[in-house]
Amino acid sequence: MEDCKKSPSDSLSCTDAIVLRLSESDPLFDKKKKLLQSKGYDVEVHIQLKNASHPKWARTTAEAMLQISRIMHLDEAELYFREDDSCSPMGYYTQKNELEALNSMLSLVNSSFLDDTCSHKDVLQDLREATMQLICDFGDKNITESTVINSQNCDKENYLLQWGEKSGVKNRLQIAHIKGFGRGAIAVTDLKVGDVALEIPVSAIISEDAMKNTDMFPALEKVDGISTETMLLLWSMKERFNSSSTFKDYFDTLPEEFNTGLSFSINAIVALDGTLLLEELIQAKEHLRNQYDELFPALCEDHPDIFPPELYTWEQFLWACELWYSNSMKIQFADGALKTCLIPIAGFLNHSLYPHITQYGKVDSATNTLKFRMSRPCHAGEQCYLSYGNFSSSHLITFYGFMPQMDNPYDIIELDIDGSQDVCSDEYDASSGTTHMVRGTWFSDNHSIFHYGLPAPLLNHFRRAREDILDADSPLLEKLKIEIEILEDLSLTFSGMMENLGEVDSESRENMDWDVKLAEEYKNLQRRIISSILSSCYAGRKLVEDELCKSLAKDDGSPC
Ligand SMILES: C[S@@+](CC[C@H](N)C(=O)[O-])C[C@H]1O[C@@H](n2cnc3c(N)ncnc32)[C@H](O)[C@@H]1O
């Protein structure tokens, strides 16, 4: 799941201003700086509280802060696909970016509020309300379908909740079986922005500390080059069968099979022919098999009492890999240490592109607990979602075994084009030197001529490649001809990709095994993305040809 990330903005508060500041340690600092500057902002923006003069100040200021905060929270792909001229002042990049941007504003306002030196509490209160209102307005525009919930009896899960209560867990979630999700967490009461849905004491978190107190640790320490994560994984393979484990109730809730891409059958792998996921899965599995072969049977032979061979088979190793990939979280502890952990109860939270909880990776040093705070409201009875990260469907299939139901803006196809030559001089230089990519063109609002719903950095890359035959003063006619060439080249590339995917499987999904079904769904998604690009190229070509025709008619007076 998602790493605990340092916020891209180091924002400050002071007595009479709120300061939004882009952190210099942000790996995308230069690109974001240019984007901010192109919109008339600096990397540090002071919001003067004493300027709050008119009744609409709070709302207008919150909206302006949001524009800045959005940019500060963009990731690489969001930055690449941003659309300047189509983005209305209140248009958002992705739902996750919007929530992060709004919540970081809220925490900034809240921390100013707690600052005793601040003499503008009434203004801050208005700003807080305006920000909360923006979160609610955004929620109203993005209503997620209510999920059919089957609240069956969950004995093992209930034991775990009881164990949690005894261990000091504070919980406002109930566990239920949800169609299409396995188990999930449901809000017991209405949860507001900022409410803590779940609070787990550090003592109830499974981290390397549990493993370091066992007789396994001294043996593992001697293994050359072994990582702490691998030690922990090997520990969990045995601990799951330990009837006196502190975490027995947690291990009892884990499934016998995880059904991630790592356990795809050969039929599912074959079904992925023509997709990049095929290669990704094969490589991931090969990597794990090599890792297993490096450790076993050697460890079992050297320490049969610590590593009983029947617990350390390849199948059990793969199960543990799937457990850690699909359920672990990277947590920053109070001493600053970053550790990969399993978190009982929090492990029931499913992923969404429009999550309720976005920031959860840092232990609160005052309480020594991990808090799962709401970034948007969740009504009683609704499923409460987490964000596992900005992952593509191929990553989610490989390591989690599912594909999001909503359109995923992180489903990108990277193109084998060298972008390092893109030394920038135009308005799109924020993306120079990056990998070029495409995604479903339905995400774009701008399908007009010279845009076509395709990413500007990609189009500009191709335009630059033809710079020797074109300059800024070239006649429109020449420019249009080049546009046609670019669209033709793109059509050719993507037609080839489409052909590689082969015919659509006509077999009914009902009769397919889970993995073949998932593989087919993934392949259909790839077809849909490529088809949208081909349609955009086709429609774009028509637009350019019409323009070309008009331009020729103007030049020689003939009718178009
Ligand atoms: C951390 S666990 C969440 C709890 C899990 N549903 C269970 O029953 O134990 C992660 C797993 O939940 C499932 N999952 C998470 N988000 C999902 C989603 N949006 N759609 C379908 N399955 C999801 C996947 O099987 C994933 O590997």
Automatic annotation (TrEMBL):
Molecular function terms from GO: methyltransferase activity
Pfam families, A to Z: SET
Superkingdom of the organism of origin: Eukaryota
Tagged with keyword Transferase: yes
UniProt keywords, alphabetically: Methyltransferase, S-adenosyl-L-methionine, Transferase
One annotated GO biological process: methylation
InterPro entries attached to this UniProt entry: Rubisco_LSMT_subst-bd_sf, SET_dom, SET_dom_sf, SETD3_SETD6_MTase
CDD domains associated with the record: SET_LSMT
Signal peptide coordinates: none
Ranges of residues in domain SET: 171-389
UniProt-recorded name of the protein: SET domain-containing protein
